[in-house]
Amino acid sequence: MAAIDARGDDVVLTLQDNERSLMLTVFTDLAALLAEDSDSDDDRPDSENWEARLGLVDRPRPEDPALLRLLPDVDPEDDERSAEFRRLTEFDLKQAKAHNVRIVLLGLSKGNDISLTRDEVLAWMKGLNDLRLVLAVRLGIDTEEAQEEKYAHREDLSESEGLTLTLYDFLTWIQDRLTTTLLGQTQGDDEI
């Protein structure tokens, strides 16, 4: 089972081979989800498209509910306002989320004992949160009541849903332990 410990200024996450392999897979999937190109007429990726980077071109509202959860409408009741906000902010938001995922994947590529700086822990926490949001959408968990319902009827879930819920639990545990460890270090810094 995974373990998370503070060692000096770093946080060390130790994973089993199967845990690390699973995390590599799901974070690679998240990177692919964030990299999906829109149906634009421009063949250049956003990173090479200055108009997109500067918010000068419209950005379509994501059709995938999981991507929409990561890149939500600013005002679900005002399509025009949401489109304007999306045009001005989506590129940077997507880039920030993709950056966090790259930090997670880089850490996972180093082996089963992953030493993380404070900034890397923050990136991991954000990446884990985004992945948990995607899994929640895939599981149909959009409220606390829906989550309680899933857990109350866990034995009735399909094998795929059951495994996804177990993964959701595992990622929640890692995120919680990283948060607790980082807070413990921060509180220790305040006492100095």
What does this structure look like?
With 192 residues, the protein is mainly alpha-helical. It has one domain (3-191). It is 65% helix and 7% strand. It is built from seven helices and three strands; from the N terminus they run ββααααβααα. Strands 1-2-3 form a three-stranded antiparallel beta sheet. A hairpin with a 2-residue loop joins strand 1 and strand 2 (10-14). Helix 4 crosses helix 5 (118-139). Mean pLDDT is 89; it is low at 38-42.
Strand segment count: 3
Radius of gyration computed on alpha carbons = 19 Å
Q: List the domain count as a whole number.
A: 1
Low-confidence stretches: 38-42
Distance between the termini: 33 Å
Major sheet, described briefly?
3 strands, antiparallel
Average pLDDT for all residues = 89
One letter per element, helices H and strands E, the order comes to EEHHHHEHHH
Strand line-up across the major sheet: 1-2-3
Taken as a percent bin, the fraction of beta residues is 5-15%
Q: Share of helix among residues?
A: 55-70%
How would you classify the quaternary structure?
Answer: single chain
Structural class from helices and strands?
mainly alpha
